[in-house]
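Troubleshooting: if your tokenizer reports a length mismatch, compare your output against this known-good record of 184 residues.
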Amino acid sequence: MAKLKVNKSSNKNLDISSIVIFCFVMLWGLFYEPKIFIGPFLISFAIIVFLIYIKTVKHKTLVKSDISQIDLMNGVQFEEYLGELFRTMGYKVENTPRSGDYGADLILKKGRRKIAVQAKRYKGRVGISAVQQIIGAKNFYKADDIWVVTNSYYSKPAKNLGAVNNVKLIDREELIKLSQRHLR
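Known-good structure output:
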């Protein structure tokens, strides 16, 4: 018997088209067989409203985060925060797989431009390896630009390598400014 493969790297966002199709089927059933479909329709409707509420609360919580809260986030939470930040800046945001990401955590798209982003939520300075990782990701993702974003600062070797390879390094100060400008 073949096992069903689950794509664990898929985006966890609500799939609006699936919800629309499901609601259409439930409404159709409610119209033709109201006695059978009223219970499942009400339960489904409540679940959908709950999921939308949870997503809205999570979004508001991330958007209200200041730098001290960002410093307490884990890496995945930091990536989610950056995703919300970049969405408000007009980018379409795609998360890469948690493992085997080839050096990029987020892929941003705006128009025909594609940007590969490495997110580093650190306590100390971000070293040269983060810049090396995103340089490697550029060709793999066919990115036009590459960025490394941190809640911290960069070491001198990281800054030097970034400058030579046209890597945009967004440090703590710039992250604060972007957050204040786009999330407040």
